[in-house]
Specification:
The complex is a heterodimer of chains A (about 300) and B (about 325).
Chain A (H helix, E strand, L loop, with lengths): L4 E10 L2 E11 L3 E5 L6 H9 L6 E6 L14 E4 L11 H11 L4 H14 L15 H13 L5 E5 L7 H16 L4 E6 L2 H7 L2 E6 L2 E7 H6 L2 E7 L3 H10 L4 E4 L2 E6 L4 H12 L3 E7 L3 H7 L4
Parallel strand pairs in A: 3-7, 3-8, 5-6, 6-7
Antiparallel strand pairs in A: 1-2, 1-4, 8-9, 10-12, 10-13, 11-12
Chain B lengths: L2 H6 L13 H18 L6 H31 L10 H19 L1 H9 L2 H6 L5 H34 L3 H8 L2 H24 L5 H22 L31 H4 L7 H10 L6 H7 L4 H23 L4
Helix pairs in contact in B: 2-7, 3-4, 3-7, 4-7, 4-9, 4-10, 4-12, 5-9, 5-10, 7-8, 7-9, 7-14, 9-10, 9-12, 9-14, 12-14
The chains are: A alpha/beta (about 300), B mainly alpha (about 325).
Chain lengths: ~300, ~325
């Protein structure tokens, strides 16, 4: 069976700007994160898979079909754009029913689908109000709902958390996890936030400057050498020295002592070092890798 | 759907296993949505005011003409030779209403989709830009046709009922039906295509409307001036409007070229074809001048001004960038 999405030697050039250069991607079932800073080529890749753009070279295939050559290939894809894309004057219910029909669903079923999907994204009573009156969070849910209304095999979500406050962001990510796990719809989620991708996805593809710089299961990104952050009230320099005598490399980052953690036995040594330095411990916690760490690690970055 | 039911028995997500009808369903949906948008359905009461007003404005002349026709016999006696306005006159009377209606409402079908970004949701679904543009265009054409035909149908029924012998009237005048159907299509094609083509260049409805109305209203006096009477050679007739039927045209200021300048009046372009279809001798100066040209000229000019914007509209959407 062909993969859900597959890019081979995919290149996209806008005038003199190279947005994507000769990338190979394969996306199978599950939730895949497309991670990269702004301008990395994430949106370009998504638009190529949707057939909104034609590749300069190479190919982008959806379930074995090229969407820029046959529009039918888009029938089982959903797309949630990053930018505004909702009409203000009509109700969410009418809008979703219309979008379902555009994907080929007859009017009678389209109404039912619209109501179902809006309920799943948490819009029930509000669906009979004009979308223009919605809050940012509600609009974001309508954007998500329209990508699901025709029950696609896969949805492509372009920065779905952008513009949301922390609470709204967490709710959106929870919804995305449910869509992937409970609804059984595969997801390609683009984001520039490691946290979003890490907490939601099974696999990650990291893009930067139009290249794939890393890809693999999420665990690969979180397991590798974890950083330990030690927050003490006093005697920071003494603590670093005490750690050094126990063979642990530590460095000061502002008021924090940071240790590259290698194994679990270190915890005992750190405890002893804290006692020896007579430093009052406030907090000790692992720090997950930030996106910047990945780019720092990569040969291109 | 009853809400409480959904809350008590959360059924979870259900996959859709009903029919998927593909592109043809998408096209139908585009057409139906275009018609609804143009009429302001599903968008609050304010959006419906203008379409209703225009519809009424287009129907009233037909009702009045039908009433006049029904009263003529009683007033002047049967068989009297009175010049009752005919089917051929109706589009002349309402063409200005159709032009304004199209200029104001047609941009509603294209501009907001691009301004609000909804167009990208259309374009990622299984349909092409051509499907989209054609669907919108057909939707608006359906509305203008409906307006144009409604009046003519009322008029026709009025004439039939007013006739002393309705069956004789039908037998003698049945040709009016295909004629007004054809002429209505001519008027509707013209008034639909130009404002939609203009709308493809702006995301602001008001700009498109202002531009189209401006186009009609500048071309009208421009043609009027260029085909106006030369006052030095024709002192007795200072303005073309006061000419009486049958008195012959005055000497236009631009001389022999005036009949070509008559083509400039864009609002009259479909009316020239209407006059040809009904074989009418028109009363307006511009129309009379244009009638001096070979028939192919106004027909070619009409086709150019309808097909041209149609191609421009299609082309502009083909190269839409995302």
């Amino acid at each position: 069976m062909s993969p859900l999405l597959e890019a081979k030697g995919l290149t996209k050039r806008y005038g003199h700007t190279l947005a994507l250069e000769n990338i190979d991607i394969r996306v199978d079932e599950g939730i895949t994160g497309l991670l990269g800073p702004n301008g990395a080529g994430k949106s370009t890749a998504i638009k190529l898979f949707l057939g909104l753009l034609r590749p300069t070279a190479g190919s982008a295939e959806v379930m074995g079909q090229r969407p820029y050559e046959s529009v039918e290939a888009r029938g089982r894809l959903g797309y949630m754009p990053e930018h505004d894309c909702l009409p203000g004057a009509i109700t969410a219910s009418d809008f979703l029913a219309h979008m379902a029909q555009l994907s080929g669903i007859p009017p009678r079923h389209a109404r039912t689908r619209a109501a179902d999907v809006l309920r799943h994204v948490g819009l029930a009573e509000e669906r009979y109000r004009a979308i223009g009156q919605y809050s940012t969070g509600m609009k974001q849910r309508v954007k998500l709902a329209q990508s699901l209304v025709h029950d696609p095999a896969m949805v492509l979500l372009d920065e779905p958390t952008s513009g949301l406050d922390p609470g709204g962001r967490e709710e959106m990510l929870e919804l995305i996890r449910r869509i992937g796990r409970e609804f059984g719809i595969s997801i390609l989620l683009s984001s520039h936030l490691m946290g979003d991708v890490e907490s939601t996805c099974d696999r990650i593809i990291v893009l930067d400057g139009g290249h794939v710089i890393e890809e693999g299961p999420v665990s690969q990104f979180t397991q590798e050498t974890e950083t330990l952050v030690i927050d003490v009230d006093n005697n920071r320099d003494e603590l670093v020295a005490a750690l050094a005598t126990r063979g642990i490399q530590a460095k000061l980052e502002g008021l924090l002592v940071v240790v590259e953690q290698e194994n679990e036995e270190q915890f005992d040594a750190i405890r002893d070092a804290l006692v020896e330095a007579n430093a009052r411990l406030r907090r000790m916690a692992p720090r997950r890798h930030q996106l910047t760490d990945i780019f720092r690690r990569s040969p291109d970055g | 759907m009853a809400e409480p039911r959904g809350e008590v028995f959360d059924l979870g997500y259900r996959h859709y296993d009903g029919p998927r009808e593909g592109r043809m369903r998408a096209r139908k949906a585009l057409w139906a949505n275009g018609v609804r948008t143009a009429l302001g359905l599903g968008r609050g009461s304010r959006a419906k005011v203008l379409p209703v007003l225009f519809f009424v404005a287009a129907i009233i002349p037909a009702v009045v003409l039908a009433l006049v026709a029904s009263q003529v016999d009683e007033v002047v006696g049967p068989g009297a030779q009175v010049d009752i306005p005919s089917h051929g006159d109706y589009y002349q009377i309402i063409s200005i209403i159709l032009l304004l209606f199209s200029a104001i409402i047609a941009p509603e079908l294209l501009c907001p989709d691009r301004r609000e970004g909804v167009i990208y949701l259309y374009l990622v679904r299984p349909l092409t830009t051509t499907d989209y543009v054609a669907g919108r265009w057909l939707a608006f054409l359906s509305i203008t046709l409906a307006i144009a035909y409604s009046g003519q149908v009322i008029l026709f029924i009025g004439f039939v009922l007013a006739a002393a012998e309705p069956f004789d009237y039908l037998r003698d005048n049945w040709l009016d039906v295909p004629r007004f159907l054809a002429a209505g299509l001519v008027v509707a094609l013209f008034t639909t295509t130009i404002p939609l083509a203009v709308s493809a260049f702006t995301t602001r409805r008001a700009y498109a409307t202002a531009f189209v109305i401006g186009l009609y209203f500048i071309s009208f006096p421009a043609a009027g001036i260029l085909t106006g009477c030369d006052e030095e050679t024709d002192q007795r007739r200072p303005a073309p409007q006061v000419e009486e039927l049958g008195s012959g045209p005055c000497e236009p200021i631009t001389g022999d070229a005036a009949k070509w300048f008559g083509l400039i009046d864009l609002g009259k372009v479909p009316i020239h074809i209407n006059d040809l279809i009904f074989n009418e001798k028109s009363e307006s100066t511009v129309a009379r001048l244009v009638q001096e040209l070979p028939n192919g000229v106004p027909i070619g000019w009409y086709l150019f001004l309808t097909a041209g914007p149609g191609v421009v509209l299609w082309w502009q959407y083909r190269k839409i960038s995302v």
